TrEMBL record:
<keyword id="KW-0805">Transcription regulation</keyword>
<dbReference type="InterPro" id="IPR014757">
    <property type="entry name" value="Tscrpt_reg_IclR_C"/>
</dbReference>
<dbReference type="InterPro" id="IPR050707">
    <property type="entry name" value="HTH_MetabolicPath_Reg"/>
</dbReference>
<keyword id="KW-0804">Transcription</keyword>
<protein>
    <submittedName>
        <fullName>IclR family transcriptional regulator</fullName>
    </submittedName>
</protein>
<dbReference type="Pfam" id="PF09339">
    <property type="entry name" value="HTH_IclR"/>
</dbReference>
<dbReference type="InterPro" id="IPR036388">
    <property type="entry name" value="WH-like_DNA-bd_sf"/>
</dbReference>
<dbReference type="InterPro" id="IPR036390">
    <property type="entry name" value="WH_DNA-bd_sf"/>
</dbReference>
<dbReference type="InterPro" id="IPR029016">
    <property type="entry name" value="GAF-like_dom_sf"/>
</dbReference>
<keyword id="KW-0238">DNA-binding</keyword>
<feature type="domain" description="HTH iclR-type">
    <location>
        <begin position="15"/>
        <end position="78"/>
    </location>
</feature>
<dbReference type="Pfam" id="PF01614">
    <property type="entry name" value="IclR_C"/>
</dbReference>
<dbReference type="InterPro" id="IPR005471">
    <property type="entry name" value="Tscrpt_reg_IclR_N"/>
</dbReference>
<feature type="domain" description="IclR-ED">
    <location>
        <begin position="79"/>
        <end position="264"/>
    </location>
</feature>
Length: 264
């Protein structure tokens, strides 16, 4: 009996260690563009700094993460890239939606993203730069955001029912607070979700990065498919309401045309 209890305790401890390591990897991916500091990782994962540091160091040793000595930041490492290559043959999502993302970037002249839900996050699958004189590049491919941060992420969040979205919003308070516009309380965020549902598109102003705004439209999925959205970002404090509706209409029309082509 004692041996069985000890083995069970080890199994629980091992599972917890794996979950903590995955939380750390996701946190680093969240700050991939500029790198994740130990302090940011600890806050994002709700771990104390000594525990976070031990996990980060182990992941660096395994090449899952890379540590940049100059500014003391962590980034996704070569092993993460190598493992990702093994999934490319199974995923055709990027190839399927790339023409649509490119078309929207061309028509709006704005940097355009394909976002996908990944658990409580949204991850950037594609990024196509627009032709605007000043280009907004707040995200890189592979970067993660808590659902509700950024226009594409908010558009995905708005497709969820209240029973799913409310607890998700309440659980992400600390992670959202690490972003410039992520300090809104849960009720404020729920109001934005309601607005996005009513209008059919989401607007983000300074949530991912200060001085940048975005518009996102969800790709309503068939059962079993990824939850996706396409968004654009611009160097602006906010969008004029008429301009926002026009851009959202351009995104929605391109998504609809792709859906009709698939059905034909």
């Amino acid at each position: 009996m004692k041996q069985g209890l000890e083995e069970g305790a080890k199994a629980v401890g091992g599972a917890q260690a794996i979950r903590r390591a995955m939380d750390v990897i996701r946190a680093v991916a969240q700050f991939q563009r500029h790198g994740a500091t130990l302090n940011k990782v600890a806050k994002a994962t709700d771990l104390n700094q000594s525990t976070a540091f031990r996990i980060l160091r182990s992941l660096v040793e395994e090449r899952m993460l890379y540590f940049e000595e100059g500014n003391r930041t962590y980034h996704l490492g070569l092993l993460a890239f190598e493992l990702g290559l093994a999934t490319q043959g199974r995923s055709q999502v990027q190839d399927y939606w790339r023409p649509v993302v490119e078309q929207i970037a061309q028509r709006t002249r704005l940097t355009t993203y394909l976002m996908a839900r990944s658990g409580d996050d949204a991850v950037c699958l594609l990024c196509v730069q627009g032709a605007a004189m000043i280009r907004a590049m707040p995200m890189d491919v592979g970067q993660r955001l808590p659902l509700g941060i950024g226009a594409g992420s908010m558009a995905i969040l708005a497709t969820l029912d209240d029973e799913e979205s409310r607890p998700l919003i309440e659980d992400q308070v600390k992670r959202r607070a690490l972003f410039p516009g992520g300090r809104a309380d849960s009720e404020q965020l729920l109001k934005r979700v309601t607005q996005a549902r009513a209008s059919g598109f989401a607007i983000s102003s300074g949530t991912v990065a200060s001085g940048l705004s975005g518009i996102g439209v969800a790709i309503v999925p068939r059962q079993g498919l990824l939850q996706l959205a396409i968004s654009v970002s611009a160097v602006a404090e906010s969008f004029d309401p008429a301009e926002a509706r026009q851009i959202a209409g351009t995104i929605a029309a391109a998504i609809s045309a792709r859906g009709q082509a698939r059905a034909a």
